[in-house]
């Protein structure tokens, strides 16, 4: 989030409460979870320490605040000429990142040492010794400021490797989805040299970058279908069939595909919605013509309730469908038998089915983003999804029996 240096300005950061650190960690963990996930390896030692890390993206600050222990109330050194150049930037930096100003010019070393008291009190001070964001993942040389501070305070230096932020938010690029990994190394003595500290960070970064994200073969197969030209037609046909006779709701399909490929959720949800509307309209016309299609897993009580609602409310009765457990095909067939006009039915069902289908699709996509680092468990997720759906369907049918 900031261009960080190891050379600060003459200002002492006010002591942050542990509650503030907890809230900041929760905030950035939530943000990064929605953009691909954050994974931490290792922990900071007890007591104060100076954290030194590689720096390739503004997202590095968010990654560290999400990963480091809140009990250390991490303070982030930030470039004074950028993050403290205006009142609103200063407020953002201090409140959202617990940042303290770091001048790029001379006279910063003695101001950096004002953080020594915070370190002795048990706080973690985070610095990026390269002094600026690196290009192409190559680490620059480390300045000595962070090490001088650690030696003055008598605390260890902790190397940290960050991977994935350069894909999440590239330098001069746009935000995209990516898993972020933060690997915390073993503490180094305060008298460590800049070269030794840099080598430790390089090793952690290389190890973190080189570790592939474990995935499920089942998820990959599902993703291949979803992202192919058959993905949207599959969603359309499934929902179309369900609106006529098929007993499995399109939300079951969305639960599988939107978790496998979150970015495909909008188009798959819209495909399912279009299929539902087309199938519901056909069901209405067939029923009005006296055609009785099979309707497995429905009951006479469901049909009686829908007839009662249609008699009272007309086409708008379908607004109850997303919440009462009665299948959409029952509403379509009974609307046809009740003589509901097709345009009225289409408008009402578009509002009712649209709100449910799009909400469900986006909710599963959000869950897929949160669980991205657990993709290898996708097969088990499908089993749980199917089991939960079967149990829920059984309860609904039994309740309407």
Automatic annotation (TrEMBL):
One example GO MF annotation: acyltransferase activity
Record-linked InterPro entries: Plipid/glycerol_acylTrfase
CDD domains, per the entry: LPLAT_AGPAT-like (cd07989)
Domain Phospholipid/glycerol acyltransferase: 49-165
Sorted UniProt keywords: Acyltransferase, Membrane, Transferase, Transmembrane, Transmembrane helix
Top-rank taxon: Bacteria
Pfam families found in the cross-reference section: Acyltransferase
SMART domains: PlsC
Keyword check for Transferase: yes
Annotated transmembrane regions: 270-293, 381-400
Keyword Magnesium belongs to the record: no
Name of this chain's protein: Lysophospholipid acyltransferase family protein
Organism, as annotated: Streptomyces poriferorum
């Amino acid at each position: 989030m900031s261009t960080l240096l190891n050379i600060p300005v003459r200002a002492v950061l006010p002591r942050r409460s542990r509650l503030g650190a907890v809230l900041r960690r929760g905030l950035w963990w939530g943000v990064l979870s929605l953009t691909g996930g954050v994974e931490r390896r290792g922990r900071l030692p007890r007591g104060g320490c100076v954290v030194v890390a590689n720096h390739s993206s503004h997202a590095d600050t968010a990654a560290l605040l999400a990963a480091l222990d809140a009990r250390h109330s991490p303070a982030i050194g930030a470039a004074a000429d950028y993050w403290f150049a205006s009142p609103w930037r200063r407020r953002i930096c201090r409140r959202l990142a617990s940042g303290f100003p770091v001048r790029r010019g001379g006279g910063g070393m003695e101001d950096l040492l004002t953080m020594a008291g915070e370190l002795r009190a048990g706080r973690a001070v985070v610095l990026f010794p390269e002094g600026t964001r690196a290009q192409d993942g190559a680490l620059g040389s480390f300045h000595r400021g962070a090490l001088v501070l650690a030696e003055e305070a008598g605390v260890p230096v902790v190397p940290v490797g960050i991977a994935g932020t350069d894909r999440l938010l590239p330098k001069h690029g746009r935000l995209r989805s990516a898993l972020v990994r933060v690997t915390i190394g073993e503490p180094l003595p305060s008298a460590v040299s800049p070269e030794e500290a840099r080598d430790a960070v390089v090793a952690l970064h290389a190890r973190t970058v080189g570790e592939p994200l474990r995935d499920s073969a089942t998820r990959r197969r599902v993703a291949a279908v979803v992202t192919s030209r058959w993905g949207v037609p599959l969603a359309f046909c499934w929902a179309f069939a369900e609106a006529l006779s098929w007993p499995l709701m399109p939300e079951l399909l969305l639960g599988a595909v939107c978790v496998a490929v979150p970015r495909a959720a909008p188009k798959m949800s819209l495909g399912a919605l279009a299929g539902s509307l087309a199938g519901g309209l056909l069901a209405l016309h067939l029923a009005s013509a006296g055609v009785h299609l099979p309707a497995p897993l429905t009951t006479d009580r469901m049909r009686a309730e829908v007839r009662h609602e249609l008699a009272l409310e007309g086409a708008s009765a379908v607004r109850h469908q997303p919440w009462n457990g009665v299948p959409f095909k029952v509403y379509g067939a009974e609307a046809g038998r009740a003589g509901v006009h097709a345009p009225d039915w289409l408008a009402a069902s578009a509002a009712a089915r649209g709100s449910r289908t799009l909400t469900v699709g986006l909710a599963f996509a959000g869950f897929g983003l949160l669980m991205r680092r657990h993709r290898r468990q996708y097969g088990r997720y499908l089993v749980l999804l199917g089991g939960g759906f079967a149990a829920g369907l059984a309860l609904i049918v039994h309740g309407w029996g």
